Amino acid sequence: MLVIVCYDVNTETREGRRRLRRVAKLCEATGQRVQKSVFECQIDLAHMEELERKLRAAMDETQDCLRLYRLPETRGAEVREYGRFKAVDFEAPLVL
Amino acid sequence: MHLLNTLYLTTPDSYLRLENQTLAIEHNHELKLRVPLHHLSSVVCFGPIQLSTPLMHGLAQQGIALVLLNEQGRFQARLEGPMAGNVLLRRAQHQAGQDGERSLALARAFVAGKLRNTRSLLLRGAREAKTAEDEAALTRQAQNLAASLRALPASADLDQLRGIEGEAARQYFAGLSLLVRADARDAFHLRDGRTRRPPRDRLNALLSFLYSLWMNDCRSALEAVGLDPQVGFLHALRPGRAALALDLMEEFRPLAERLALTLINRQQLRAEDFVQREGGAVSLDPEARKAVLVAFQERKQEALQHPLLAEPLAQGLLPLVQARLLARAIRGEADVDGAPASYVPYLIR
């Protein structure tokens, strides 16, 4: 399933910038960055729960916010993309 | 069961490293791709690909196999975490290997699978043949294979069995070019039958490459279920030879041949996609090799009906399923009717 992860981390303080780095790293390890603070992750439910738990531990819920969208498999019709960035389909052949 | 992806690296001097639980691929200091490790079941590197030690550790920890092949696709090395599987299964495998009767029964099953699937390939070719001559020749070849199949149960030992298989293969390869579309037969035929090390014509080069891809998948599948890929039944034991992987692969060879024929007949591969090297060896040119890898990966996603499981299964999972059935037969587990399970190869419908 495709999960869209979006976040806003308040970076006014040093502590905030540190949280931003931590949150970004967790997302980078799981999916691909499609916009500055938006990630697409091809993961299963267990993996999503784990990511959610780690992200909540890394953020400060009084200052930051986090949204996770679960998209069920609809045979590649979940996303329409335009513009400069083209996402990689990690389930298609990977030949470089 | 989910089919995890394989990452193939063919661009020379790519540099791979671990970055925050993702595999990052750079070329000339430019980031080309990042893949989170959880998407991968193996990473296959062709020729001079560089990679960092932390990445090797990361792959080993996640149970992702790292396979090193030379530029032609020949196996060089494989890095894998602690050997998986169960020591009792491996002991049963070694005992079966020393038991002549059981070895022969398993070896027969592998050969039968290969001959049956080859025969299906020929019959399909006969149905689609453009001329009556081709159709007749292909039907005759299929009949010869059927005769070889009937001779299998009578084979008293491994040597006789290998003899039947060798003769069937020789005849089959002699006629394989009938499955190539007529206008491509000049470019794609087996000049002196099957040649390898090195392949001496285009069709041989393509077949060798596809076989080596299947071989890697069979070997991984055996390792995954905990069988020892080196202890085979049909293929003789030899240091460094993955005899059981070769055994298991027999029934899949016709699938590799089918893909080779598709690529040629749909003109996805042409004569100029191959290079002739000094000494008469022929190999795929690097761009064409990428196209073959993509086609191979796509083929693996295609679902086939598995006669025993009675449900569609991605072709790429076949080696894994068959390795499990093999493990069951080697353990001597009882079948539904109480008799010890025998190994049933995968049969193309």
TrEMBL record, chain A:
Pfam families: CRISPR_Cas2 (PF09827). Its EC number is 3.1.-.-. One of its GO terms (molecular function) is metal ion binding. InterPro entries: CRISPR_associated_Cas2 (IPR021127), Virulence_VapD/CRISPR_Cas2 (IPR019199). Its cofactor is Mg(2+). Keywords: Antiviral defense, Endonuclease, Hydrolase, Magnesium, Metal-binding, Nuclease. Mg(2+) binds at residue 8. The keyword Transmembrane helix does not apply. GO terms for biological process: defense response to virus; maintenance of CRISPR repeat elements. The keyword rRNA processing does not apply. HAMAP family: Cas2. Homodimer, forms a heterotetramer with a Cas1 homodimer. Belongs to the CRISPR-associated endoribonuclease Cas2 protein family. PANTHER family: CRISPR-ASSOCIATED ENDORIBONUCLEASE CAS2, CRISPR-ASSOCIATED ENDORIBONUCLEASE CAS2 3. CRISPR (clustered regularly interspaced short palindromic repeat), is an adaptive immune system that provides protection against mobile genetic elements (viruses, transposable elements and conjugative plasmids). CRISPR clusters contain sequences complementary to antecedent mobile elements and target invading nucleic acids. CRISPR clusters are transcribed and processed into CRISPR RNA (crRNA). Functions as a ssRNA-specific endoribonuclease. Involved in the integration of spacer DNA into the CRISPR cassette. This is CRISPR-associated endoribonuclease Cas2. It comes from Inhella inkyongensis.
Automatic annotation (TrEMBL), chain B:
Its cofactor is Mg(2+); Mn(2+). Its EC number is 3.1.-.-. Mn(2+) binds at residues 165, 235, 250. Keywords: Antiviral defense, DNA-binding, Endonuclease, Hydrolase, Magnesium, Manganese, Metal-binding, Nuclease. It is an enzyme of class 3 (hydrolase). It comes from the Bacteria. InterPro entries: Cas1, CRISPR-assoc_Cas1, CRISPR-assoc_Cas1_C, CRISPR-assoc_Cas1_DVULG, CRISPR-assoc_Cas1_N. Pfam families: Cas_Cas1 (PF01867). GO terms for biological process: defense response to virus; maintenance of CRISPR repeat elements. GO terms for molecular function: DNA binding; DNA endonuclease activity; hydrolase activity; metal ion binding. HAMAP family: Cas1. Belongs to the CRISPR-associated endonuclease Cas1 family. Homodimer, forms a heterotetramer with a Cas2 homodimer. CRISPR (clustered regularly interspaced short palindromic repeat), is an adaptive immune system that provides protection against mobile genetic elements (viruses, transposable elements and conjugative plasmids). CRISPR clusters contain spacers, sequences complementary to antecedent mobile elements, and target invading nucleic acids. CRISPR clusters are transcribed and processed into CRISPR RNA (crRNA). Acts as a dsDNA endonuclease. Involved in the integration of spacer DNA into the CRISPR cassette. This is CRISPR-associated endonuclease Cas1. It comes from Inhella inkyongensis. The gene is cas1.
